[in-house]
Structures are given as C-alpha cells and as structure tokens.
Amino acid sequence: MTEKIALTPKTHTTPPAKFSHGVRKGNILQVAGQVGFLPAEEGRPPTPAGPTLREQTLQTLANVRAILEEGGASWEDVMMLRVYLTDVDHFAEMNAIYNAYFENLVEVPAARTTVYVGLPAGLLIEIDALAVLG
Amino acid sequence: MTEKIALTPKTHTTPPAKFSHGVRKGNILQVAGQVGFLPAEEGRPPTPAGPTLREQTLQTLANVRAILEEGGASWEDVMMLRVYLTDVDHFAEMNAIYNAYFENLVEVPAARTTVYVGLPAGLLIEIDALAVLG
Amino acid sequence: MTEKIALTPKTHTTPPAKFSHGVRKGNILQVAGQVGFLPAEEGRPPTPAGPTLREQTLQTLANVRAILEEGGASWEDVMMLRVYLTDVDHFAEMNAIYNAYFENLVEVPAARTTVYVGLPAGLLIEIDALAVLG
C-alpha cells in the first residue's frame, strides 16, 4: 500500500476547498492548476503577482515549482505541463517567457499542451503538471 | 504484460463511440470525461439529471465514482480531477457542492484544475479523473 | 533512476519552444498536444493538412501515433485521449471520423474527454494522449 501525500508548500495556503495543491503517491506526482498568486500572507486575500502576462507566468511557474519541490521532484521529472491561456494573442509572449525560464534545463523538457479557455477575472494563465519521479 | 481493462459500470451504456468510460492498466486508472447524465435506461436517450448545476454536479460525481468502483478504486485513490465548467459564475456554487460531497473524505483529497470551456447545450459541468491504486 | 526520453519522430520538427512533442519515462508515455500539421519539411512553415475537420482530424491522429510509435507504444497502450474542438457542432463529424479510424482496434479503446476551447486561427482540433506501456 503506497500512501498518498498532500503537497502544501509554505508559499501556499491550505486550499479553501477539498482539494490539494498537489499530491504524490508512489512515483507519480500531480500538481493542481496553479495561477499567478503571490506567496500566501495571513490576512491577505489571494493576490495576483501583477496584471501582466509576464508577472503572472513567472509567478505561476514558481508556484508549480514549489509544489514539485515539496514532493521531492524538480522540473526534470515533469512529463506534461498543461498551459491554459485566455487569449490566443498571448501565446508568443508566454512562449518567450517560458523558453527563457527553461533555458538552462539540461534534461528533456516536458510535453506541453496549450489551450485557450476562460479563467476568473484578472487571471491570464493557469498551469498544471504531471511528474514521474525517477 | 499488463492487461488494459475497460470500465463500464451498470449505470452506464456502452459508449456510442470507440472510447471507454474508463480504463485501468496496472495501477493506473483513467476516468473519461463524465457529465450529469442519469443512469442509463434502455430505450431512453442520455438524459441530464436536471437543468441545475447542483443536480448535474452531484450526478457527474456519482458517474465518476461508479467508474472508479468498477475498477476497484475509490475517491481515496484519485490524484487529479479536472472540472470543466461553462460559466465562471458557477465556481462558488460548484465548490460548495464539491466540498460538501467530500466532507467526510478522510484521505488526502485529489489535486484539481477547474477551467471554463464550452460543452454541448444543456450541460453545465464535465469531470474527468486520474487515479493511482495503492 | 529511470531516464526521461524526448520523442521526436522524423515527421516532426524539433519544437520551437522548450517542450517536447512527447516524453517517455519508465512505462509512462505522454504525447503533447498535436494539431493537424503536415509532416515537417525544411524551409516550410508548419502547414495544416487542409482547412477541413476531416483532414485535420486524420492528420492529428497520425501525428499522435507517430509519437507513440517513436516511444515504442501503440494505440493499444493509450489510456486517455483529450480532444479539443473549437465548435460544438463539430462533435458528430469528429466522432464519426474517430470511430472509423479506430474501427479495427482489437484492444480496449482509450478513455476520452472532449472539450470546446479556443485554438490558433485555422486550427480546428488538438489532441494529447497519455499511454501506459505494458
């Protein structure tokens, strides 16, 4: 019997609903959809890193990474990233930010699917991730 | 060689297309996108549980669960739920129904991504799930 | 330590961004979102197989399959296909093409979720896939 573990890094609040920011069971790690909220501060409501796609993309990637690390994983272990954008015209800029962010990644980068959906007002990007630990 | 098994609970009709409601292979179980159709009855076309988000959310969760159980899994084994809504304004109500539904879940709840997409007319919610058995 | 391998079939160009068309690690294989681009030719920009849903669906399935095969997998190993359409009215036609394509599949077909999202101009369908090798 392999135990399922909730992944709640210090930068994240306990989720307001009955879900986890991430879970790990055996060698499988799943990161829930992350958005560009700043690290949690007590008494402050969830606050986006800023209004721009750049600010939100970098913060979202940092939030995904915090959960991976909480579960003992790193970008190298990620198999799939799902990127949800709200505007097709954001693709080129997101891609440039993404490429720069992963520029020094030595290992094989993850597969990725980018689709265009709705998100709550003010949020421009959401990312979730599936990792398989070595 | 591990066998792949189709999961078709009694509450579900055989899919009209060449896909399965769920599949299990080894310890991985994938539930296909479920919507709020009532348990199948011969001669009746697929019928939503009702027009409201509450009715459809509870029926959708029941449909996901039936497939999990058909594969020998339970909510405790679920790593990720993807919730597709059609309206950002439905989030709070869905979340309240979801939290009440999982209130007595002892184990770590699954990670979750909620996005806003289109669905066929009359359908307000769709959910798919990935589980890893213990 | 299991190695992660990038899957880049000859029909595909090296991705323009820091992601892989597919990755395999151990017995898990993930195919990134594929669209209906024709096999890559040097000096030609990515070109859809045609303007119709039929042309794009068949090409997209061929592109998913090429990545599966590059990783030593086949349709039989696929657990989940995610189909992204841009128009609810395309469902019936996509389903008919899909069913004909998989008509001779002996094994259990994959689970599937179909949702309606935005895609870049001219693209009508995108598909990604998760496979578990035997």
TrEMBL record, chains A, B, C:
Segments traversing the membrane: none
EC number: 3.5.-.-
Gene3D superfamilies xref list: RutC-like (3.30.1330.40)
Class of this enzyme: hydrolase
GO molecular function: hydrolase activity
Pfam families: Ribonuc_L-PSP (PF01042)
Highest rank taxon of the organism: Bacteria
CDD domains: YjgF_YER057c_UK114_family
Keyword terms, alphabetized: Hydrolase
InterPro entries, per the entry: RutC-like_sf, YjgF/YER057c/UK114
Protein name (Swiss-Prot/TrEMBL): RidA family protein
Record organism: Streptomyces hokutonensis
Lineage: Bacteria, Bacillati, Actinomycetota, Actinomycetes, Kitasatosporales
